[in-house]
Amino acid sequence: MKSGIPLVSPGTIKWGAIDLISPVKRVTEEEYRSLMDHCVVEQGDLVMSRNQSVGVVSYVDSKKPFVLGQDTVLIKPIHADWRFIYYTLQSDLVQRQIAKSAGGSTFSRINLSDIRALNIKTPAICEQDKISQILSAWDKAISVTEKLLTNSQYQKKSLMQQLLTGKKRLLDENGERFSGEWKQDVNLGSIINISKGVQINKNTLSEDGQFPVINGGIAPSGFTSEFNTDENTITISEGGNSCGYVAFQKKSFWCGGHCYAVRKTALDLSFTFHLLKYNELKIMGLRVGSGLPNIQKKAIEAFTVNFPVTSVEQQKIAAVLSAADAEISTLEKKLVCLKNEKKALMQQLLTGKRRVSVPVKVEEQEAVSA
Question: Kind and range of the H or E element at 175?
Fold first, then answer.
């Protein structure tokens, strides 16, 4: 049912304003009145998930009607700033209580009695308001950075689609558009040389060390004291759920048995990386097998790509895309920092370890003076 009033379920509850767009299930006006005759939802109310994403809370920011689905609970702040209660429920202190009450089973669920028993600290309303203002400012900074990151990622994707297909040509050193030939449908095996690494005993790996071990996953499998592949090498995951994942290793590393390394390329190295990254999803589509999927070397070598003949144009394209990657990386790091700083601030402000100054009312000042 595309039209109708949305039914909010645990699967659609996320931190932030309540999502009334994603819910697939919707009800009629008559069903809404019947299902919601026991309560009135107002702006500033909170909705918590009791299973799936246990303890995740959304806040109601509009007067648009919706139905509370099964295993959701409405929280109405009484004599408290709703924003303060929202942030308190988000804090590590309360989330640990929720996790303990829900248990660690596959089907975690928290009871209403456990929600009512949550232990939270509430200062005076004026201090709650001040704390909420501070944390809201951090949320706005995080939201702005997230939007900038999304925009940069979209622009990078658009650039790849234009520059790595020849639809858009860049300017050469004379300010003229490149007009040289583009090779079409060339087998990767004729322009790059790839080989699989050497499997290493996982029991010998450490959590930190000098050289990362790159195997079938996206992140390193661990670290070791030796390396078998030099820095500035392109890798392609050979096996596992992420087989086909393309990465650029800036430091020397150990190339594992479920990892392909590009040992040689006839194209500019940076351009080769961006070309492979652009085709990553298609390369992932080459996987075979169900239990432990993998990509055969011959399948990668038979994969076809297009590219400009001149190394100068390849380098220009690579430079533009690398600059876009650098911007994305900067925003990602900034976002992580903002979230960590907000988390640390919450731990101080929402536990009373750090107090905020609040303005003293005129009558209170007079009472003190008297």
Answer: none
